[in-house]
Amino acid sequence: MTDTRLNGVIRAFEAGKPAFTCFAKVDKLTAQEMTDAPYDGVVFEMEHNPYDVSALGDALQYMLNRKTIAETGSVAPSVTPLARIPANGGEMNQFQAKQVLDRGVYGVITPHVATVEQAWNAVASCRYAKPTGAAYYEPKGIRGDGPATAARYWGLSQPDYYAKADVWPLVPHGEILVGMMCESPEAIDNLDDILANVPGIGLVLIGEGDLSQALGYPRQYEHPEVVSAMTKIVEVCKKHNVVVGNPHTNAKNVERLIGEGYRFLMSAPSRSYGVVGQGRELAGY
Predict the structure, then answer these.
(1) Which of 70, 97, 217, 229 is deepest in the core (most CB within 10 A)?
(2) What secondary structure does DSSP assign to the chain, as a single string?
(3) What is the pLDDT at residue 248?
(4) Counting Cβ atoms within 10 Å, is residue 115 exposed (0-12), middle (13-18) or buried (19+)?
(5) Cβ contact 181:110 at 8 Å
(6) Overall CATH class of domain 8-176+244-283
């Protein structure tokens, strides 16, 4: 089994660098364009866009670039595919996490996670079952066993896929990133307990849109109450050494966001490649 880090987003985090990503529609053309984009990762958006697992599988195949694999000698994707599933934390639809992972994504972002129970379920849904007493046992895995397509997409044997298809940073060699979206006052109130009691959360992505709605200031991202709520999220994440992400990164705010400690920075696809270059320069790489 290769020791090469396959997940480029995790690779950036481990190097102490921010990861630059974007949301993308689940379609073949976008997937093909993303393959040569300057991002560390791409999040296929399946919450507000149709939940189409078949289309996701096709998109992932279009992200494969045999020329790049031959030149680098590595099956690690040049841009790491993740997926945001439609189920909110309270819905606990584990099958959606299972299905997108079985297609081959390297991470799952769950919207509207607001309690310890919901966060625990989000992590457990991305883990295979282990024997009682095994290392890194909790959260107890509940992902169903069906690895053939994902192992083939990752370019690994099934035994090697099993070894790598666990959640980071709970399992240091794991390649799956579990992200929870924090986008309500309840979630903010519970975030400290969540991060203290749920191992395996690799990313907290702030849902600015829904959070601003819940606070009574729809999309007024500069309103003091919205800014204060986001600042609290960042502080709690820093306390627990968990990566915090911002979904609305642009040329005007990228310097501020990096300075404030955001390490998962999402910009608009294609037309915002310059933001990635600007952000990497500010981050020193």
Answers:
(1) 97
(2) ---S---HHHHHHHTT--EEEEEE-SSHHHHHHHHTSS-SEEEEE-SSS---HHHHHHHHHHH--HHHHHHHT--S-SSEEEEE-S--GGG--HHHHHHHHHHT-SEEEES---SHHHHHHHHHTTSB---TT-TT-PSPP-B-S--HHHHHHHT--HHHHHHH-SEETTSTT--EEEEEEE-SHHHHHHHHHHHHH-TT--EEEE-HHHHHHHHT-TT-TTSHHHHHHHHHHHHHHHHTT-EEEES---TTTHHHHHHHT--EEE--TTTTHHHHHHHHHHHT-
(3) 94
(4) middle
(5) yes
(6) alpha beta
Q: Span 83-90, mean pLDDT?
A: 97
Report which residue type is found at 57: G
The two three-digit tokens of residue 269, written as one number: 């696809």
Q: Which backbone phi and psi does 238 adopt, to 5 degrees?
A: -60, -40
Q: What is the pLDDT of residues 99-148, one digit of tens each?
A: 999 999 999 999 999 999 999 999 999 999 999 999 999 999 999 999 99
How distant, in Å, are the alpha carbons of 112, 130, 200, 239 from that of 214?
12, 39, 27, 25
Residue ranges per structural domain of the chain: 8-176+244-283
- Token pair 């959070």 is found at 211
What does residue 218 show for φ and ψ, rounded to 5 degrees? Answer: -55, 120
